[in-house]
Amino acid sequence: MASSRSTKLAVVGCGLMGSALARAFAAAGHEVAVWNRTAGKARAVGGGTVAFEDLRQAVAGRELVVVSLSNYAAWAELCASGDVASALSGKTLVQLTSGSPADARGGLEWARANGVDYLDAAILAYPAFVATDYATVFYAGSRAVFDRHHDTLQALARNSVFVDEKIGSAATLDCAILEAYYGGSLAVLHAAAMCKAEGLDPKAFFAQKNAFLGLISVTADAAGDMISRDTFSGDQCSLDTHVAAIEHIVRLSADARISTRFPRELLENYRRAVGAGLGGQELPAVFRTLERE
Q1: Is 79 in contact with 88 (CB distance < 8 Å)?
Q2: Is residue 158's pLDDT more than 90?
Q3: What's the DSSP call for residue 291?
Q4: Across the strands, what pairs with 10?
Q5: Structural domain count, the chain
Q6: What sign does the dihedral 66-70-71-72 (CA atoms) show?
Q7: Distances, alpha carbon 219 to alpha carbons 95, 216, 223, 246, in Å
Q8: What are the distances in angstroms from CA 192 to CA 181, 185, 202, 244?
Q9: Which CATH number do you get for residue 134?
Q10: Phi and psi for 237 in degrees, rounded to 5?
């Protein structure tokens, strides 16, 4: 994924993800400085990168600084030094540390106060997938700043998505996708546990992957349309019917003596929507009881 122009940049943070980012930039022909609080980790990145023990020296002369740390608090501690803030002035900082929209807004406030151009970003990939077609990076902030560095950032993922100028939008989309991933994964694992407890080989369940993924896809498409129109009426399957199905799942789990925590939580959420008078609506009507406490 070679770039048409070599960029002098720095990667701050040399954990698994930071190291993968730095090597991807270097492989694309960029001049990459790396820094980590533990200097040995920076030296271990390799791949044509140059390790620095002093953060100010690592970012000196670099037009782009990419940060990948454990959390925003770690970054706040680093940039609390006036010398570090001064060294970053006039540069573009791409924050790839995982966080919340509130973290992103705090980062932008700091950047504006210190003369730093700022993009908040979220990468949807494991380190091994960086620089492959399986990686996606979401960006938020100034569109002009993103466009200026787009070619360089393509080294991390061909699918570089500018979400919105609203600085928290990339973190919001990332959290939303991850919630769907973690919640869906837990449901899949609980379903496999039900099968095993009832003496059915979980492989029989996993073999039907396309069936439940298809149902989720159909529901997501319907929900997107219904939420945009703020109407949840239909003639496919009422919430009352879905609640009855979830009750069977809870009973199966209890009878099989496996954890009922997850299906009971599902049932509580769906019943809350029925209690709000939405029992005759389609499944996405649950949205109305989730958008406010």
Answers
A1: yes
A2: no
A3: S
A4: 33, 65
A5: 2
A6: negative
A7: 34, 5, 6, 16
A8: 16, 11, 5, 21
A9: 3.40.50.720
A10: -165, 120
> Is a pLDDT exceeding 70 seen at residue 4?
no
187 and 284 assigned to the same domain = yes
Is position 182 within any domain? yes
Residue 166, pLDDT > 60, answer yes
What average pLDDT does range 126-140 have in this prediction?
96
78 in Cβ contact with 88 (< 8 Å): no
- DSSP of 186-203: HHHHHHHHHHHHTT--HH
Which of 167, 199, 232 corresponds to the end of one domain?
167
Q: Between residues 206 and 1, which one has the greater pLDDT?
A: 206
Tokens for 240, please give them: 């009352």
Q: Which residue has the tokens 């059915």?
A: 200
Does residue 2 register a pLDDT over 90? no
Which domain-ending residue is among 98, 133, 167? Answer: 167
81 pLDDT band (50/70/90 cuts)?
Answer: confident
- Whole-angstrom distance, CA of residue 43 vs CA of residue 54: 13
Residues 91 and 119: beta-carbon distance below 8 Å: no
Yes or no: say if 252 and 283 are a contact pair by the CB < 8 Å rule. no
What gap in Å lies between CA 85 and CA 289, rounded to an integer? 44
Which structural domain, as residue segments, surrounds residue 121? 8-167
pLDDT at residue 5, as a whole number? 82
Burial 64-80 (b: 16+ CB within 10 A, else e): bbbbbbeebeebeebbe
Average pLDDT over residues 217-238: 96
- Given its phi and psi angles, is residue 68 left (phi above 0), alpha (psi -120 to 50 degrees) or beta? beta
